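Quick start: load a record and inspect it. Here is LacI family transcriptional regulator:
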Amino acid sequence: MARLKDIAEYVGVSISTVSRVIQNDQTRNVNQETKSKIWQAVKELGYIPNQHARNLVNNKQTKTNTRTMKIGWVANPKSAEINPYFASIYTGIRDTLTKQDYTLVSITKDELENEALLLETIHDLGIEGLLLIDRIDDRLIDYIRQTIPLVGLDFFYTDKNMAVVDYHREAAIKRVVQHFVSQGHREIGFIGGGVNETFEDLHAEYRFKGYQTAMEEAGLTIRPDWVINTKWKMENSYEKMNQLVKRDLANLPTAMVCASDMMAIAAMRAVVENNLRIPGDIAFFGVDNIEMGKYSSPPLSTVDIPKYEMGKMAAKTIMEMVEGKVTLPIKLILPFELVLRESSSIIRT
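Running the structure step on this input writes:
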């Protein structure tokens, strides 16, 4: 295992300089270039800063003494408050961990991506494992995995070499398109969001890929002007659907596939405000089966995602990894099902 001396020799500085940087000692300045080189060496050589972290790496903890029983939850602080999808996942995680006497600790993306806070957060707080909802940089994933187990949820981590709990997003949307096609729809649009930092890259998002594949398999044409990238904002869904309706009232899609219920509900409002009927003029189908979808006007057809179960399985997986029962980066893909309600019940002929 790497030592301070190894880091110092690797970078070409003194051991005291390395120590000051790692401990975030502000009494003497170290220039930014040297700091960056030291942190890079820490990551490349796999240096572990304190005894608690070494215990984690060597799996020498026992439940009766050095265990902290803390699991970190890395997500936007407001995710579970404002988004019902994440709220259900969070509840599943919290309930499952609490039953086994674990404590769930909220950690922000900024705390991990700040180099000085990274070691403090992971090591000094005694976090034994991390559950990732918010997207973090790949280089941090690789570094953190040297120290503690990680489990990813949501589409950011589906293709990573790490433990993941998710559902098959592409297959879910394919089923929705196939359902619309079986009803007789041929003019089908899409509402969703991208996957990069600004959510602009729609074509790399799995739900959009599912839409593309299903449309191609059905021999249907995708109209670019019927594809809306909301960047996952409800106001964008409302405004862009409103623009679509007003632009060409005589040439509208007969059905809209929406990558989330919240995007669907916002777009449906725009349609109703333009005196169009749902589903008579435009049918809608969402994804997530959040509670408010039952009470939209009309009630929203949706894909039921086992959100609570995703949280429950993520919690069980991270506990088993922390306790050494699971060592491989397992991937759990949970099932989904279509829930048919009034927003898609009438077929336009």
